[in-house]
Amino acid sequence: MVIKILLLIVFFAVMVGVGVYSRKHATDVSGFVLGGRSVGPWLTAFAYGTSYFSAVVFVGYAGQFGYKYGLASTWVGIGNALLGSLIAWVVLGRRTRIMTKHLKSMTMPDFFGKRYDSQALRLAASMIAFIFLIPYTASVYNGLSYLFGMAFDVDFKVCVIVMAVLTGVYVIVGGYMATALNDLIQGIIMLFGIVAVIAAVLSGHGGFMAAVKELAAVPSDVMPGAYASFFGPDPLNLLGVVILTSLGTWGLPQMVQKFYAIKSEKAVHTGTIISTLFAVVVAGGCYFLGGFSRISGVQPAADGTIVYDTIIPTMLSSLSDILIGVVIVLVLSASMSTLSSLVLTSSSTLTLDFIKPLFVKNMDEKKQLVYMRILLAVFIVISVVIALDPPAFIAQLMGISWGALAGAFLAPFLYGLYWKGVTKAAVWASFICGVGITVANMFFKFIASPINAGAIAMIAGLIVVPVVSVLTPKMKGEQVEEIFSCLEEKVTVEKKVALPKEEA
Is pLDDT at 140 greater than 60 in this prediction? Predict the structure, then answer.
C-alpha cells in the first residue's frame, strides 16, 4: 500500500508542477487554447495519442472486445495505429494546420463558421460538441472505479474528486501547454506500463504460446479455437469497432485540434511517426492483452451476463504490488490526459463559439481567458457529478458520443480541407445525419450495436456531403478561392545544384 500511495503522490506532484511551470504560456487566448501554435512534434504526437487512449479503452473496450473477439481484437489496436493515427496525420495534419491558421480558427466549430461563412453552423457545431463531449468526459472516470476497488481500500468517489481537482488545477493554470507537457510524461508511463503488464500477465500463463494454446481450447459456438484465430468469431462486428474507434478520431474536436497547435511542416512529419508508433504499442497492447480475457478467471454474474469493466482488473489482480501501482498510474495517466483535453476543448468551444458571438460580442482577451477557466471548472464539476451517479440515459449517451460527434463533423471537416465545392446545405445534412442516426438508434435500436450505428453514421456523412453539395447552391467563387489561397501560395527558392542538360 505504501508503494502504491508513494507512486500516486509523486505522479500528482509532477502533474501540478508542470501546470505551474506552463502558466507563462497561457497569458493569451492562443497560448491557452493552442500553446501559441508553436508546439513541437513530440508533445503534439503524445498529446494526440494520450487523448485518444483513455481508461475507457484500457479497461472498458479492451476487456469488452477482447472477451467478444479474442486475440482478433488486436485488429482494433492495429486499425487505431494505421487509420486513426498514421493516415489521420498524413491526410489531416498539414492542411489543418495551414488552413486553420489562415482562417484564424482556434476550434472546430470556428472552422466550420469561417470555412462555410455561416455563424449558424458555428453555433450548431458548438452545441453538438458541448452536448456530446460532456458525457464522454464523465465516462473517462468509469474505468477507474474497479481498479481502485481492487488496489485501494478507498471510496471511489474520493478518487474521482481528487483526480478531477488535480486535472483542473494544471489545465486552468497552464492551459494547452500544461496539457501537452503532462501528456508527454503520461504517455511515457503508458508505454512502459502496458509492456510490463502484458509481460507479467503472459508470464502468469506460462508464456505467449502456452497462453494462446489455453485460449484456443476455450469453446465457441462458431468454430473450435475461434478466440485464438486470425479474425475471431465475429469479423463483421469487429470491422464496425475498427471503423468507429479508428476513423472516428478524424471528426473528434479534441483530437483534430492537436493539428491546429503543431509548430511546423517538419514537426508534422516527425509527429506522424511518433504518434503511429505510440498507438501501435498502447492501443495494440491494450487490445492484445484483452484478447486473453477468457482465460483470466472472469466469471459471469448470476443472470449469466459479463460485467466487462471487471475483466481487466480481474486479470491484473494477481500482479505484484509494484506492478499494480504501475497499472494505477498508467490508467490515471490515460484518464487525466483525455480528461484535460476534453474539458479544454469544451470550455474553449463554448466560450469562443457560443458565449462570445451571442452574448458578449466585445469580449477582450482577458475576459475570454476568465470565461474559459471558469467554464473549465464547471465542466469538470458536471462530469464528476455525472460520473458519481450516472443516470441510465447518460450511460447510453456515453456510448454514442463518438458516433454522434464523428458522424456529424468528420465529412464536412475532411471535405472542407480538400474540396472547394462543399456547400452549407451539405454541412447541415451531415450534422443532421450524424446526430440523427446515433440518437435515433439509442431510442429505437434499429441497429443492434451502438458501435456499428456510429460507424454507419460516419460512412453516411461521407456519402451525404458530396451528394448534397452537387445538388445545392455553391458558395461564392472568390470567397472559396481566398480560403484555399493559403494552400496555393507560391514561394521562390534558390537552386544550389543543377543537373547538366542532356546532350543532344
Answer: yes
